[in-house]
Design brief:
single chain, elongated, 71 residues, 3 helices, mainly alpha
Length: 71
C-alpha cells in the first residue's frame, strides 16, 4: 500500500519509484513524495542495483542468443 504524501516512502515505495524511473513513467504525487520525503541514498543504491541487474540480464540474453546461433 502506498504511503500518503506526509510520510517518508518505504523501501518498497522507493523500489517502485526506481522501476518507474527506468520506464520513464511516474505519478506526480509519487514524484513529489520522493523529492520531499525520500532519502537520496536509497534511490541511488536501488538505482545502481537495478542497473547492474539490467546489464546482467542483457549479457545473459546476448550469450544465450549467440550460443543458440552457434557463434
Amino acid at each position: 500500500m502506498d504511503n500518503d504524501n506526509n510520510q517518508a516512502p518505504s523501501l518498497w515505495d522507493v523500489a517502485k519509484s526506481v522501476m518507474a524511473g527506468f520506464l520513464g513513467v511516474q505519478k506526480s504525487k509519487h514524484y513529489e513524495r520522493d523529492f520531499t520525503h525520500g532519502k537520496p541514498w536509497q534511490y541511488i543504491t536501488l538505482g545502481l542495483i537495478g542497473v547492474v541487474i539490467f546489464i546482467a540480464v542483457i549479457i545473459g540474453v546476448v550469450r544465450l542468443v549467440l550460443s543458440l546461433a552457434g557463434v
